């Protein structure tokens, strides 16, 4: 009984994480009944982001520039490279403020069942990056979930063949927890207590 | 530390009901990392809806047509007019399937504190509609909340001066409940047990 465009909007909102049919309907009507300006702004922001945001050519994080701000920053220590799963992890680590090196963002973790292997995580580029640059230490900061640990193990084995120090972020982060929800102090401790693998 | 376009997207997602900074960030990254196609579809759907959806010239419900499907339908009984707060209420009543008349959608309820008075709810148009057409009965189906009851009372007083039968949907719907969440049977009973005001 909703008109076609409203139905389409409700259906499209379902792609948001945690949004079922009921909340999608609530969101669509809220936007059209009560927050037209917000809806207009969101439509623009989404279109802009979809059209322009891609991956940093160096660290693979999400950015609308060819290279992200961190990779462009000559002050960052290129000798240390921290590997994380998502851009949100970069944000969490930057907020902790104790790491001055660079990042490599996997945009996921190994998950054969979803077809995510080493190629999808850009591990060939990671190896090129490590072999061509003056990287002395790679700190693996994937989540301490089962998948994150497996991914860490895989990457560590690969890199240990390459004359580079490989360390794993300390388990100051609670087991089973996701990096982006850990507070800055714990993250700083976890970085400090990292162990050579 | 997110790029400007990603920050803007996160900020814009906050206009969705119940979405705080954390979920907005999760939604933005989900769309850009994992569901680009969904994000693209949502951007289109939102732009289309914002540009084209307006109000039905007759009943004020949300539609991209000049007149909504129900108002265009010659089979609907123009003698009975059901007043509801939102388009979602029309959907709920239609799903109950026991009403064959037409609707008038307030798109809200009286709320002086938010600057929503009779004009914002289109009550002048409602009076015109009732006086110019062959409406014999107006069924008020606003929510059984404090605001819905006050709105019902106000409308009933206005219309009773106009030689039209005014009834209120029966309180089969639980007090304090919102119409759109009530099951079809209860809604059917509530319509059936309506009392003349
Ligand atoms: Zn980068
Ligand atoms: Zn209509």
From TrEMBL, chains A, B:
A zinc finger (C4-type) spans 56-71. Belongs to the RecR family. It comes from Marinomonas sargassi. This is Recombination protein RecR. It comes from the Bacteria. May play a role in DNA repair. It seems to be involved in an RecBC-independent recombinational process of DNA repair. It may act with RecF and RecO. Gene3D superfamilies: 3.40.1360.10, 6.10.250.240, RecR Domain 1. The gene is recR. Keywords: DNA damage, DNA recombination, DNA repair, Metal-binding, Zinc, Zinc-finger. Residues 79-174 form the Toprim domain. The keyword Metal-binding applies.
């Amino acid at each position: 009984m909703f008109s076609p465009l409203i139905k389409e909007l409700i259906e499209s909102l379902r792609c948001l994480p945690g949004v079922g049919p009921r909340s999608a309907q609530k969101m669509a009507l809220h936007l059209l009944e009560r927050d037209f300006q917000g809806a207009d702004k969101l439509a623009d922001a989404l279109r802009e982001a979809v059209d322009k945001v891609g991956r940093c050519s160096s660290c693979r994080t999400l950015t609308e520039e060819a290279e992200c701000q961190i990779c462009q920053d000559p002050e960052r220590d290129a000798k240390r490279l921290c590997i994380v799963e998502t851009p949100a992890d970069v944000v969490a680590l930057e907020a902790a403020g104790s790491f001055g090196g660079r990042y490599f963002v996997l945009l996921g973790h190994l998950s054969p069942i979803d077809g995510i292997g080493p190629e999808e995580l850009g591990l060939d580029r990671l190896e090129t990056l490590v072999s061509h640059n003056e990287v002395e230490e790679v700190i693996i900061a994937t989540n301490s979930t089962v998948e994150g640990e497996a991914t860490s193990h895989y990457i560590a084995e690969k890199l240990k063949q390459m004359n580079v120090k490989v360390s794993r972020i300390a388990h100051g982060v609670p087991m089973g927890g996701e990096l982006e929800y850990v507070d800055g102090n714990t993250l700083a401790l976890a970085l400090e207590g990292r162990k050579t693998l």
